[in-house]
Hints:
Distance between the termini: 36 Å
Helix content: 55-70%
Order of helices and strands: HHHHHHHH
Shape: rod-shaped
Number of helices: 8
Radius of gyration: 25 Å
Amino acid sequence: MSDQESSLGNxxxxxxxxxxxxxxxxxxxxxTTSAAPPRPAPTEAPAPTPASAASTASSQTGRxxxxxxGSGNLDPKFAEHLANVxxxxxxxxxxxxxxxxxxxxxxxxxxxxxxxxxxAWASFKALGGPADIGVLTRTANQYVAALQKDRDGFTxxxxxALTERVGGLENEQQRLQAENDALTRQxxxxxxxxxxxxxxxxxxxxxxxxxxAKIRQNQQNYETTYAHFVEQINxxxxxxxxxxxx
Length: 246
């Protein structure tokens, strides 16, 4: 990734995820969401591949926040990854992100939400943005589509990781159990081999549980982070339609 894309990705990341303050870090409180974006610079980078998501699923599970089984967290590494996906799919010229940056500047003025959107729309046009509100919804939907495409790639990488890690251990488990069934019918001199295999079987059970839990937790973290991004964008699309009379 170029320096320009990396910088834009970091700015988009700050748009969706607030940086933790010292008090939040000390108490373990998860980061909260931000209501406004950075101003992304035009970029014509090609669509990203899900390679980084695959490596995350297979090698970086140790840094995830703890969570109960079946739930996910807003994961910083996935937030950074998805921000970079958006950066690489940012079209030239003012669009949805510039509008949200304008909207951010109005959040502390005490205006009602509909007035904030209307004022942001007027400022957006005054700063050279297109006068067609459809540009905002179209580009917002394009970002959602880019995130969905990345999610599809990530899901495939999770399936491959599960097949490689857990599937391989299951095959070893089945092979050793079959060998044990034969060894129990043999003479005493092969008992040491049977005991060694039994010990390995016990270890495999723990490894399967650990590896499967790590990969699935990583998937849950991704899904939660992905849903957070898409929810914010879709909420803006609804409000654009409601407040700006598309």
